[in-house]
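Hey, I'm writing a tutorial for new members on how sequence and structure tokens pair up, and I'd like a real worked example in the thread rather than a made-up one. If someone can provide the structure for the chain below, I'll link this post from the tutorial.
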Amino acid sequence: MFKKIALIIVIFTCISFAQKDHDPFMYTGSKAILFSFSGLSNLGANNFDGGAGIKFFLTSPMALRIGVQVNAAGTTTPANPITGEVGLDGSTTSTTIGVDAALEYHMTTTRLSPYFGGGVGFATTSNQSIPAVTGTTAPLYQITTKDGPGAGLTFNVFALMGAEYFIVNEVSLSAEYRLGYSLLSPSDMVVSTSRPNVPSVTTKGVSSHDLYLNSAGFLTLAIYF
């Protein structure tokens, strides 16, 4: 592990000294795609903020970055009835769509560029759960739960401070602190059944908020083009 980290540092250092000492691609109109950078043991480039990201320099010191999150997941649970039983399969689905935007103000345009700024984002999540059922007589009835725990609209705003280092003119690594506030406005949970003449039950969701300071992550790999 330590040998791999040392080798990475040596390679980055050699590349840096091999480059000419001039400003990297940090000018009006320069742009980059972003990845979360992790796993020094295997050099993993992961989703940026849980999705895809791009950065665009509006002016030489000012950059706008945007992240988009789209996640649609689903599972099917077989009923697996035994001999003499009938069954209905169950299922779960979850969909999340979100976007965040942040402004970075760079204090220099040199190879090592400290910056500060702020951002805002939101995400909406919906889900549905239908458990599998089995029985010896038909018809069978299932209970459907829509917008259970975690469903709703999440809003967050944050201030940031960090530094971006250009390994080469087209590739950089940046790390930052974030101080932010997150608020969840939950959806109402609706529980219904396929049994006739049985009304659905609606339960108000529990809202939550969180003030956080995060310095454990947010290591970003940027590839300029």
